[in-house]
């Protein structure tokens, strides 16, 4: 199916202001929330008190839109109210002094999965801000690497820059269960998993982005993860 896709080149994207939802980065330290009907911008009322100066690497909404989370260059993960745009929790130093490069909610909105340039992937409890799990064994110190769950949230996937592999952990035990060749020339910059089936897409770190065989490849996780692991479903 990938072979039949038409290659479409897209120019590099660098948003100065984030809209209400996006997976891009911004030079601003605080996400800008917009009303899509009036284009009115809403900012957190407690921005000055937060003392945030580092720009954002990623922002993502929870599944019901009640909250959104930001991953920042100062290593912090911050949770924001999706209606008032107020910061409701700051996990300062989530990745030490290294950049936090990605953050996303679990389906039940109880946890946030983050990735950072300290070569760690971490799972945080939203209610307490406490670290629940840490997934180690994948080196990522240069690119804005992603960490994602598979469609059942039984596995965590991220990128190893040094070996150019997709690393798969058991979400509960934090043990590595597979290391899959990315088949890219360089380490993938982006990784996204299907929300409905055992497949993910990776993208190469190039100046332009596209969809098709040359720029991205879809791999079936079930074909690569050992059968004894997949039988736990």
Automatic annotation (TrEMBL):
**UniProt cross-references to Pfam families, sorted A to Z:** WD40
Indicate where this protein resides in the cell.
Answer: Nucleus
Superkingdom in the source lineage: Eukaryota
Cellular component GO terms held in the UniProt record: mRNA cleavage stimulating factor complex
Record keywords? mRNA processing, Nucleus, Repeat, WD repeat
BP-aspect Gene Ontology terms:
mRNA 3'-end processing
Q: Is this entry keyworded Nucleus?
A: yes
Gene3D superfamilies found in the cross-reference section: YVTN repeat-like/Quinoprotein amine dehydrogenase
Q: InterPro entries of this UniProt entry? A: CstF1-like (IPR044633), WD40/YVTN_repeat-like_dom_sf (IPR015943), WD40_repeat_CS (IPR019775), WD40_repeat_dom_sf (IPR036322), WD40_rpt (IPR001680)
Task: Give a yes or no for keyword Repeat in this entry.
Answer: yes
Instruction: List residue spans for each WD repeat.
Output: 49-90, 101-134
This protein's name: Cleavage stimulation factor 50 kDa subunit
